[in-house]
């Protein structure tokens, strides 16, 4: 098509109908930009709309919190693979007394099993080979595998009565992270970014750190969709920080590009995207502009926040020797504290290696050593800096482990299969009662006897602590209003401070 023809076609589009259409898109774009964080107007103390020069961070979809928030940020220490509650938190001496006996059917009560143990003729009960002792003001039972965590037990809210429907890893992890066992939904961090936005202009609202433990280093993998935005705009997906020369993939400029050249390119790209948005009205176009600008600002902020070389020796001593090794759980816990200081809204750590179907005693001892000191240090470090009071720290996996041995039980060795009926998590920080043990399981450590907490209850309570009513934070997609807790979820009020 000739240049003259292009101009003629363009002029034909500039009629009254096109003008009205594009004016509407402009108003919509203004509203969308406001939601994306470009606050052109705000209310002053008298409630009058006034022009603003911009605010720190980006806004979420919520104009106001549904109620007063207890915390400003979350650090979620997700222990992938299913830590055995029977070796760590849930002391069951009866299992040692009845070691080797078959699990009574009255206790199992027809529960479905995974394909890894459903073919067993017997289910021999097995207690922990590790000792438990009482700690803290209330004499909370804790395993000797967790000496550092035992010292901060008065700061922890331990929930022994978690349960889920999922029995295998992928649907179970997906359920915890997205509220659905089926992939495709936004994860918790994306919902937080969508609802609340960010408090930092130069870092994303939702960051992800990965580490692999020594317990079972080649165990269950994790998929990037676990920190994906699902059907929300792509600007809400988690940004993974890696232990590498380039912490964020594709963030650095190619060789030969200057800062001024990069700025000019982004300005031109933004102009082209604005034209595209005016023509088609696709909100994802605005999200793309926002992501480019965030990446530009992150070129300076990410190297700074990832650099721990200026941390004093006593901090490294708190977190342990591994804190100086990039990519380890301890190093990631230290980075999580630095990200919290920068007001990153949702900091997700995934630590792999807890899937111990065999050789559990040897594997869990290594795995617990990987995380014990650093987890406790993170809580103590936040506390000494005055950050714990408005930060929520979460520690836990996707399900627990069975009270019977998977495979052959010997005097020194055994394994445990997946167990969704009861398992343990702990919380620390703002909004939850410290020194509380909530919920109980039976003497066999198989069923919940008091105060069950479902995955959706956990998610509803988490949103509540952030000032969000889980039933009101929704997104309309394919004709239905979706939310993190689907159609369930109750706030666990008994654990709230």
UniProtKB/TrEMBL annotation:
Q: Which InterPro entries match?
A: Alkaline_phosphatase_core_sf, DUF1501, TAT_signal
- A Pfam match is DUF1501
* UniProt-listed PROSITE patterns: TAT
What PANTHER family does its record include?
A: BLL7424 PROTEIN (PTHR43737), DUF1501 DOMAIN-CONTAINING PROTEIN (PTHR43737:SF1)
- The molecule here is called Sulfatase
Species source reads: Croceivirga radicis
